[in-house]
Write a structure and sequence with these properties.
Elements: E1 2-8, E2 11-17, E3 33-38, H1 39-45, E4 54-58, H2 67-79, E5 87-92, H3 94-106, E6 112-117, H4 120-126, E7 131-136, E8 139-146, E9 151-154, H5 164-181, H6 183-191, H7 201-221, H8 236-246, H9 250-267, H10 273-285, H11 296-304, E10 313-321, E11 324-331, H12 332-342
Parallel strand pairs: 2-9, 3-4, 3-5, 5-6, 6-9
Antiparallel strand pairs: 1-2, 7-8, 10-11
Helix pairs in contact: 2-3, 3-4, 4-5, 4-7, 5-6, 5-7, 5-9, 8-9, 8-11, 9-10, 11-12
The structure holds nicotinamide-adenine-dinucleotide and zinc ion.
Length: 343
């Protein structure tokens, strides 16, 4: 088990990588407690849940990451007479944690909360950074806030029941962390590709710990996403286009976005050609798509609507090597030219 203390301008949090759901009770305050989970996680793990005053089960899926789910939670909390001194424990993936974290942040102007993070994506990405929220009228994460849970348990054993596609989605973000900031993490993934598809909780504890360390360093330097934090968007500018147009799951779409961003880095003389090939090779080896099946017109049109765009420029994350990155402003007109040259 690896412990990491996060201290940032928006608060403090303890992250426990490789700790188990069974031990969560050691970290919980002696308070009236509501557990928030989803029906999948409840079915699989209810026997290991700590005792609580109420267990609230959300329906799984992005279409339930809504204000209605918040209302359902508040109805239960009010019915069970929760107050400012109560505690919320979220047990689940990124959706459960985002919704429960937001509910806890605004119920009675904010009560204490903690997470047991049960998907690879939520362990490596959603567990750090303090972003909570819900979708609104189809707009992702439109309503939310920044607020940190007291603790996050990242239980690698829970990943055994996770569908392979969900593992690959998390791996997209793990590889991203290696590429932007850690050659050793990237090499560790390369050395363990055969274990990603089998039962090795230890490699996942390392993936999670290294990812959290990288993300927390970046977030600590820039909690509100002004400068350094932009590096976490590596692969996401184009990734969002694949996600939106081709309906490819987020982590895999980011994989494709990283392939393009690496190619652009080579074109700008920042990255060696063989490094770009090494990245593509790793993605292929673990079973992530690397073929771009989107026309340059569609790709450029999606970029024009990127919400992180500032006027005519996009802050684009490029690699200067495997494990090092920079953020450069690239104008839309230059990006258009680059996209057409890539085909
Ligand atoms: N707050 C952040 O910084 C942040 C970062 C990244 C993603 N997110 C958000 O996270 C969400 C995606 O997260 P996710 O992929 O974890 O989604 P999710 O919570 O929907 O989980 C994916 C599926 O796996 C199931 N599941 C969860 N744990 C399981 C387990 N151990 N075994 C078997 N099945 C399990 C869930 O029921 C669900 O069906 C998105 O809404 C995204 O916006 C937030
Ligand atoms: Zn992402």
């Amino acid at each position: 088990m690896e412990k990491l203390e996060i201290t940032s301008s928006i608060g403090n949090s303890t992250i426990l990588a490789g700790e188990t759901l069974q031990n969560v009770v050691q970290y919980m305050p002696d308070k009236k407690t509501a557990i928030i989970t989803d029906t999948h996680v409840y079915e699989l793990y209810a026997d290991s849940f700590p005792s609580a005053d109420v267990v609230i089960q959300l329906q799984p899926g992005e279409s339930y990451k809504t204000m209605d789910s918040l209302s359902l939670i508040f109805d239960e909390l009010v019915a069970h007479e929760f107050d400012r001194s109560s505690f919320i424990l979220a047990i689940g993936g990124g959706i459960v944690c985002d919704v429960a974290g937001f509910a806890a942040s605004i119920f009675m102007r904010g009560i204490e909360f903690g997470f047991v993070s049960s998907t690879l994506l939520s362990q490596v990405d959603a567990s750090v950074g303090g972003k909570n929220g819900v979708n609104f009228r189809g707009y992702k994460n439109m309503i939310g806030n920044f607020n940190l849970p007291s603790f996050v348990i990242c239980d690698s054993h829970m990943l055994k029941t996770l569908p392979q596609e969900e593992i690959l989605c998390g791996m997209g973000e793990v590889i991203k962390h290696g590429l932007i900031a850690s050659l050793p993490l990237f090499e560790y993934i390369e050395q363990n590709t055969d274990k990603i598809h089998t039962d090795y909780p230890d490699i996942f504890t390392r993936f999670v710990y290294d990812s959290i360390l990288i993300k927390s360093n970046v977030v600590n330097a820039d909690a509100r996403e002004q400068g350094e934090r932009r590096k976490l968007n590596f692969g996401h500018t184009f990734g969002h286009a694949f996600e939106k147009i081709q309906k490819i799951p987020h982590g895999m779409a980011v994989g494709l976005g990283m392939v393009i961003a690496a190619k652009i880095s080579v074109r700008r003389g920042l990255l060696a050609q063989d490094s770009a090939e090494r990245i593509e090779c790793l993605l292929e080896k673990i079973g992530m798509p690397t073929e771009i099946n989107l026309s340059p017109e569609d790709l450029f049109s999606a970029l024009k609507h990127d919400k992180k765009r500032e006027g005519g420029d996009i802050h684009f994350v490029l690699l200067t090597g495997i494990g090092s990155s920079i953020v450069e402003k690239i104008s839309l007109s230059e990006l258009e030219k680059i996209i057409y040259d890539l085909y």
